[in-house]
Specification:
single chain; 163 residues; alpha+beta; seven-stranded antiparallel β-sheet; 9 strands; globular
Length: 163
């Protein structure tokens, strides 16, 4: 499978077991795997950004941040695949292709997020990454711990990544 930025994917339960971070969203099974993740490919690293259908819950958080800070770059509320979704940049985490389970499909076709929304997600994600590098951590997941675990795996292939 050729992984590409801008599509939605699902993560393997093996990754969730390996990382064991209570802030990672667990896989739910039903008629389909949940959650779906928007993926940003950055060299060997994949940044998974979860989507949630609990829009009302996250809309409240979004509005609180807007009121307090005048903006919110950690949560976006957008229609994805004709349904309202909360895009949770604050819950993003790094992984590698080994832990990719499968693409999210709509009518059997891998779903590609519209270009305008992709650019918005990426701009907010890279802004939150810049803030982390400057000492302002807006991520709920422990991306440094995850980075260490993933680097151990990548060391087997003699590759490291930096946040």
């Amino acid at each position: 499978m050729k992984l590409q930025t801008g599509y939605l994917y699902h993560i393997s339960s093996d990754f969730l077991k390996l990382i064991d971070d209570p802030n990672l969203q667990i896989n739910h099974m039903g008629n389909h795997s949940r959650p779906s993740y928007f993926v940003i490919k950055d060299n060997d690293i994949l940044w998974f950004i979860p989507l949630s259908s609990k829009v009302d819950k996250y809309k409240k958080e979004y509005n609180k941040k807007i009121k307090k800070y005048g903006k919110c770059n950690t949560i976006l509320i957008r229609n994805i695949a004709n349904k309202p979704n909360a895009i949770l940049i604050q819950n993003a985490f790094p992984t590698i292709e080994r832990y990719l389970n499968h693409p999210h499909t709509v009518n059997g076709i891998p779903y590609r997020v519209p270009t305008g929304i992709q650019k918005e997600i990426e701009a907010n994600f890279f802004e939150v990454m810049r803030l982390k590098k400057e000492g302002v951590n807006l991520f709920f997941t422990d991306i440094d711990k995850i980075k260490e675990i993933i680097n151990k795996e990548l060391n087997n292939s003699k590759t490291n990544f930096e946040l």
